[in-house]
Amino acid sequence: MHNVHPLGDFLETDPKGYLISGVSPDNLISPWREAVDYATRLEVSRWGKQLHSLYLRGSVALGKAVLNRSDIDLFAVLFDEESATHQVLPWSEQELEDFYIRFPFLTSIECSHISLAQVHGPFHYYRFVMKVSSLCIYGCDLLPTLDGYTTDAPIAEEWFRIFPHLVNRFILEMKESGDYKRRKRLCMDMMKTFLRSGMLLVMRRKSAYTRELYPSYQCFSDFYPEEESAMRRCLELAVNPISDQQTLLPFVFRLAEWMHGAAEAEFGSIELLPVSLIS
After folding, report:
1. Is residue 157 predicted with pLDDT exceeding 60?
2. N or C: where does the chain have the smaller number of CB atoms within 10 Å of the terminal CB?
3. pTM score, two decimals?
């Protein structure tokens, strides 16, 4: 059982109000560097010539990773739409098991992908994630070509146009998985998604942004005190995930429905974007 600690910071801004990411290659220190290098080799092998570049985001890239508490979050940029929709097998169960045996201090690893066209397309969210929280670890770095972002950018509106797809995917995978370890990882990822969605919901009013969990919870709760206990529960489950579907699914259903209503109250009617925009 891990305790919840009130740790984490908001991103700093430059004199023009643009968010500063804080990531750096210098932050990749042992034992995280070895885990990232190992995962990078697997991802490069998995995608082959389809891979344009590979990025690391989150606490490891920020140099704030905590043993037995932090994960590795990678996403690949692929050369074209056909590559992005092409069915490439995910890591096998054996590869995942070997990875966790080799690096037991990691809570999980997430490997997602988007196309180069999506990076340069009309949807801002992935560009935003790349610019404010990502580090290029393989291939041609796109980050210097991307415009900066302020907290006034319409990121949250776009995020809540794909958020229901993420909830639906979580529910489906929870119901289909017979592996309690897999269900616990799904729980952890979904709770982090709720916390970061809550931060996006209030980002413009707060004039601040972070992907870190505790300040996301705190900031959200300042604006929506009626849902503080639910977001506190998300924080607890992100640190100490569970696998019990009968407990998780009703909680996720209710909070997702509330958050959708809050987003529509904040931004107006929300039309979902294609599910193909998430990977």
Report:
1. yes
2. N
3. 0.86
